[in-house]
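Protein of interest.
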Amino acid sequence: MSTFSPRSLFVLALGIGLGTTLPALFHIESAQAKPQKIPTFNPSQSLAPLVEALSDTVVNITVSSDLTTMTPSSPFGWNFGLEQPMPSGQGSGFIISDDGYILTNYHVVENADTLTVRLSDETEYPATLVGFDDSIDVALLKVTAEDELPYVKLGNSDAVRVGDYAIAIGNPFGLSHTVTMGIISAKERVIGSGPYDDYLQTDASINPGNSGGPLFSITGEVIGINTAINPRAQGIGFSVPINKVTTILEDLKEKGHPSRGWLGLSLEPSDDQGKGVRVREVYTNTPAETAGIQADDLITYFDNIAIESVDTLIRMVGEHKAGETLPIQIQRGKRNRELSVTLGERPSQQDLATGTFESSSDYQWGVQTALTQGFAKDPGQQGLVVIQIEKNSPLRNDLQLGDIILSANNNPIDSQGLGAYSPKKTLRLRIWRQGRVLTIEVTP
């Protein structure tokens, strides 16, 4: 049974003996309030005390959907899908707070109509999707329980070294709370799954149903979320480093998505390898266009750091928040130019794939829109359909999802959206809503 759409992955595992070269004893206590306490144990003899302490924090996630789809494999050979019918499926997850927040993979819950979380004691709770980041395949769920729930401590994946031991607990093929062990085989792996590929590689045995489960260090801290395998290989699994997740957790809780920086252009390697990246195209109504960047410019520095590759620039921009203003140096012809760019908010992978991002409005209004036309039985009618409203948007009490903005301050709407209008001044909008044209006025 599968869940999932273009991506589905599984958990890390490995069966090798533990040598006596490890430290004789571990004793881990958290000064925080209070992730699961790991008792004193001797890893050269058994990991049972560690597993017993952690198992209650790992959950089984069951999904159901009205959709029936088949999940394709990646052209790179990486398996992000179980390639089975969509109506129901399952994956893994882990509890990160006593009030019921749970991390898993986005592909586990994508397109789900209902979500059910089952604990190790077989207690079940309905779950809601709080937020997700499809660019790194992570989702945040929430359940409501009468009692405080056991939860994990999130570790520091940057400190992980190749050769460190790793433990996975998950639900492969529905076999609840299966434990496997391996080592970290490599770091910073790029496998072509998304713009922020930076996987931990492990020699774990990964199977359907492990998707979204935790990868633990031998000290009982989560260092990754198990995500992908190459189905043509054995002992090669990939896990999203937990540091990639902790930096966006508050955004997921508060906004439902990360506020990653975005330039709004397509790139290609430069002719002179190691010296900048070439701008192939600048998209309409984007921070790059506003900053004056043009097609065929060579971007050589961003935030005063030399750019060596396309991946480097994409990651650097994504590490900044929307709204930050940063220096960017370009080479146009034989001249170097210093520009300043105010980052926008990176659209979702789906919006990028469909091109709807080209109509995205200024982030300051807290509204995301998509240019549309041909509605209201008028093939020439054009407007901006509201596809997302932030909690802190000044328009949150006036707009609804699905509204189509026809004009702003009596100006016909175009792909520039609301970006030309200050959120500090009165805004008068004409909107089309369910067959009616309405006028709303927002005064700060």
